[in-house]
Amino acid sequence: MRNAIRHALGDDAYRRLTLYPRILRMVVRPKPPRETAALPQLIKPGGVVFDVGANYGQYARVLSPLVGTTGCVYAFEPSRITMEGLRLMCRLLRLKNIAFHQLALSDQEGTAQLEIPIKDGGHLGVGLARLHSSDNWRSISEQVQVTTLDSFVERAGVRCCDFIKCDVEGAEYRVLQGALNTLRRHRPQLLIEIKDAQLRRYGNTAKQLVELLDGLRYDIYLWKDQRLARVDAIDASPNFIFIPRPG
Predict the structure, then answer these.
(1) Could you state, in chain order, the average pLDDT of each consecutive group of 10 residues for the chain (247 residues)?
(2) CB-based contacts of 136: which residues, under 8 Å, 6+ apart?
(3) Domain housing 223
(4) How many domains is the chain partitioned into structurally?
(5) What is the radius of gyration, based on Cα positions, of the chain?
(6) Which are the contacts of 57, defined by CB distance < 8 A and separation ≥ 6?
(7) Cβ neighbours around 14 below 10 Å, total
(8) Is residue 204 part of a domain?
(9) What is the CATH number of the domain that holds 70?
(10) How far apart are CA 247 and CA 241, in angstroms?
(11) Which of 124, 101, 104, 125 is nearest to 114 (CA)?
(12) pTM score, two decimals?
């Protein structure tokens, strides 16, 4: 039946049709990442936060009420169809302090090809999309705009940055390289997905990323046993919190 519907509608219309029930399921039965439990300790009302790789809003839905009506969540998502789902999620949840930006963040500006895998059922694996993929997978390709976080902050006149969440399927090191001025000036707290295998697809490593942040005087934390625990190195857990050292 699904194949018949997809054939009748065409791939793009079918993917749009299947987008809505997926978003509704996420609204009704959310499955927030474990680390979202740490966010109330890190983000205060009035905060300015960046959600880099916002996907369908799994973090934005938590970040939005934390910063409140006087704060703002800048949500970055380069894919057209994923941005459509993100906007729909925020409309359904009545999140009014989200600033949507259909951009990829990296270490330089320009355009790039975003590869989004096609799953067996015909829908898109938007959470696995990445720039310049060399994997042998069925995918659709979308040309997207790319900028750096530093350039965005300057052009948009953003006066402060309190928190950055970054999950971009291996491009995290490049995002940080393009955010060095922001990190030095504003000293935001960070939540970053770190998977060495994904970072290596872009020619980087987890060790490089940790050394970069150590050089910027950040300490590593994990959300463990319902508390933030400082650790000396990263382990198999994919999501790490980085907090700037005082002074």
Answers:
(1) 46 59 78 91 97 94 97 95 90 96 96 72 56 61 90 96 95 97 98 94 94 98 93 89 93
(2) none
(3) 33-244
(4) 1
(5) 18
(6) 26, 75, 85, 86, 89, 90, 93, 95
(7) 18
(8) yes
(9) 3.40.50.150
(10) 19
(11) 104
(12) 0.87
Maximum Cα interatomic distance, the chain, rounded to a whole number of Å: 63
Using alpha carbons, list the distances in angstroms from residue 21 to 85, 88, 215: 10, 11, 45
> By the 8 A CB rule, do 111 and 144 touch?
yes
Q: Cα separations (Å) of 8 from 5, 11, 63?
A: 5, 9, 40
pLDDT at position 9 is: 44
Task: Please name the residues in contact with 2: beta carbons below 8 A apart, sequence gap of 6 or more.
Answer: 121, 122
Phi-psi sector, 193: left (phi>0), alpha (psi -120 to 50), beta = beta
Both structure tokens of 185: 């000036």
Strand order in the sheet with 110-117: 104-105, 139-147, 110-117, 130-131
Residue 188 lies in a domain: yes
Residue 236: predicted pLDDT: 79
Q: Are 48 and 64 in contact (CB under 8 A)?
A: no
For residue 208, being part of any structural domain is answered with yes
Question: pLDDT, tens digit, for every residue of 131-177?
Answer: 765 556 666 677 889 999 999 999 999 999 999 999 998 999 999 99
> Which one-letter amino acid corresponds to residue 199?
L
Beta strands 104-105; 139-147: pairing state: parallel
If you write DSSP's letter for every residue of 55-81 in order, what string do you get? TTTTTHHHHHHHH-TT-EEEEE---HH
For residue 5, being part of any structural domain is answered with no
Torsion angles phi and psi, residue 25, rounded to 5:
-60, -40
